[in-house]
Amino acid sequence: MARHVKEGLWEVSPYNFDPGIRGQMELPAKVTIMDVTLREGRQVEGVSLGLDDVVEVARRLAEAGVPLIEMHHDEPEEMREVKKLGTGVKIMALVHPLAAVSVEKAMEAVDRVRSAGADIVCFAFALSNHHFATYKLAGLDISREKALELGCKAVEAAKKTGITVSCNLLDIARVDLAWLKTQAKSLADAGTDIIRVDDICAPCMPTVVKHLVREVKKVIPNTPIDIHTHNDYGLATALQLGALEGGAEILEGSVNGLGERSGIPNLAELVTIVELFYGFETGIPLDKLRSLSEFVADVFNQPLPPSLPIVGKRAFAHAIEGHHFFSDDQLWHTSITPKLVGHREYVPFCHYSGPWAVRHKCVELGLGDIPVDVARQVAEKVRRELRLRRTGLSDEVFKEILRSVPRR
Questions:
Q1: Looking at residues 256-284, what average pLDDT do you find?
Q2: CATH code for 5-299?
């Protein structure tokens, strides 16, 4: 069976599965998706969730099939309550870089997050040119090499408790590759279970991340790589995919792309692409994506952008006339059907809408088909109304226009 098509649901490019193209990638055997909505997604102006909100978002993430979520170590009660849900979702707790500068501080952090129910502790390592000042601000007069040495000891101590350890390497695109590989190998040798690479501000092409991950993978072939990316240049998801093609096993996103500055990868986009373009099973049913996005938009008071791919209102909206010539073929001007991702198609109107769009709109609203000559008159009135209102037409206004045109 062809992997690029499923009758009535999707048909993507067969070249996605061309052996010659995929042979240029270092794809992992399997992929895990981590959602960071309850950590990075809250770093947005005006967002401040109560405990009940956090627990309900976590419950719905689990309901949507998300296997791993990240939360913040400063909110132990939140982790504790989420764990009480008993959904089986694993929690990773991110801790501050200063937690890995001594065994004592590391153990304090581990004890805190373990008692709250975290399954993974994530130590951050600020060892790039820009971020090393973090240690100096704390009054530590140490070299990068010393900070890494102390971090390795912290990892060794943390591992003895039985907790899973992740190490987050900051600013990967602006550090010397040899130094990046040294960090990764040293920490892996110390026993870390996951190496997380963090772009900080996305200052590179996706192919650069692919190269960096592939090179790091050479020195830690048996340690999973997790990738955290930002959308400063609109490349967050592309950077995730670059990392995937380099061999990264853990990919990250947040619902609706919520996060610091311009956000991070939109979970719905990431999951859909990983499943349909790359052929991985993420365990996240695609038809849960739209409802999850709507719920988070409401709880976070961050309206869902209409043009957001996969889940936005206009994701499956076709306005221009040519897109309605074959309205019975849902893959005529899209490669996936709205049903696949729990969405629906609708017909908006614009300056270029004509009788075919009008007829399709009538069918969408359950009004049946109408003759072309009637549809042409309706289209003229629709365009006039758009010019007067300078906004989209509601279904009610469209019905009024339809009623105003006499039929033979």
A1: 97
A2: 3.20.20.70
